[in-house]
Amino acid sequence: MTDPVHRSGFACFVGRPNAGKSTLTNALVGQKIAIASSKPQTTRHAVRGIITRDDGQLVLIDTPGLHRPRTLLGQRLNDLVFETWSEVDVVGVCLPCDQRVGPGDKFIIGEIAKLDHRPTLVALATKTDLVSKQRQLSHLVDVGAVAEELGIEWAEVIPCSAVADDQVDTVRDALVDLLPEGPAYYPDGEITDEPEEALIAELIREAALEGVRDELPHSIAVTIDEILPRPDRPEDKPLTDIFASIVVERESQKGIIIGHKGSRLREIGSQAREQINRLLGTRVHLNLHVKVLKEWQRDAKHLNRLGF
Ligand SMILES: Nc1nc2c(ncn2[C@@H]2O[C@H](COP(=O)(O)OP(=O)(O)OP(=O)(O)O)[C@@H](O)[C@H]2O)c(=O)[nH]1
Ligand SMILES: [Mg+2]
Question: Are 191 and 33 in contact (CB under 8 A)?
């Protein structure tokens, strides 16, 4: 009997903001490694999720939504997408069923088509739960047509929903099957190479995004200032103190985040704390502080300091 094939490699998800890339990434990995929200441009870095099975290992990279940039941050996020898709074996283009295949999608596919080493392309028709079967079918026809129009070929077109767990397994199988043969890159059991600190900062940002609108979601960044195990705790009841800053761009935004007598900040804290407890498996005490970094999205020095 010959040895069974073992595949390994990299895939990334790309698409317009809000297409469902991060939600699908989490569903595929089986754990929350990327935050998701209804605000566009939630994801701000390339988050790696690792799926290890007997027949292969898939390193799945979630990327920021590609958009028309209005700030230096936006430009840098787009650059990151361009860099990521030129380095992977497979690109999953997320095209949500509840939206028409539009100019933004065509721009993305057209840019991938220009790459010297064109990756294998998969179309993921996300959010099937939001549409009728009929609408889903007409969307799939449009997804097929856009390939023809732009001179690319979909290796697979898969309708799916991360929220309704529709065909998530099919997406996972398809991505692994499209990888080249090779050994695993990461040890079994590793889910992501995101540092814990980055995951914590993102969970706080996700909580802060809840209920804010207009420009404010874009203006929020989170930094972790210190993580300290509380001394003198009983061994079976450890407690971790986390000191973090929610960064905004203007004084008026600071007021919104803090809320009346600090009510919103407390809400953010309790929502984030629950998620962080789950992530770390220990109780945490969250100390949140709000600070203003004037126009940080447009300031190279601030951006560098915030890790962009
Ligand atoms: N009904 C439904 N909603 C979904 C599904 N997938 C994602 N969403 C919602 O769509 C919104 C955007 O999801 P994200 O996963 O953050 O989208 P994204 O493509 O990562 O967005 P950016 O990071 O901003 O580019 C969130 O409110 C999700 O809950 C789905 O399969 N069904
Ligand atoms: Mg995202």
Answer: yes
> Stretch 136-156: mean pLDDT, rounded?
97
Domain that holds residue 296: 196-305
Beta pairing partners, 267: none
Judge if 47 and 84 occupy the same domain. Answer: yes
Q: Enumerate the β-bridge partners of residue 94.
A: 15, 124
* Integer Cα distance of 102 and 146 in angstroms: 10
pLDDT, one tens digit per residue, over 31-63 is 999 999 999 899 999 999 999 999 999 999 999
The domain spanning residue 65 has which CATH number?
3.40.50.300
Into how many domains does the chain fold? 2
Q: Whose CA is nearest to atom 13 of ligand 1?
A: 20
Task: Cite the beta strand spans of 213-275 per DSSP E.
Answer: 221-229, 239-248
119 Cβ closer than 6 Å to some ligand 1 atom: no
**Over the stretch 152-164, which tens digit does the pLDDT of each residue have?**
999 999 999 999 9
Query: 10 Å Cβ neighbour count for 127?
Result: 27
Residue 162 Cβ < 6 Å to ligand 1: yes
Q: Which residue of 12, 14, 16, 18 sits with most ligand 1 atoms within 8 Å of its CB, as the best mutation to test the pocket?
A: 18
The residue type of 100 is: R
Those residues whose C-beta lies under 8 Å from the C-beta of residue 262, and which sit 6 or more positions away, are none
**Is the domain of 200 the same as that of 279?**
yes
Q: pLDDT tens digit string along 223-246? A: 999 999 999 899 899 999 999 999
Name the DSSP letter for residue 161.
B
Q: Which atom of ligand 1 is nearest to the CA of 130?
A: 1
- Is the pTM above the cut of 0.90? yes
Best substitution site from 14, 16, 21, 23 to test ligand 1's pocket, by max atoms within 8 Å of Cβ? 23
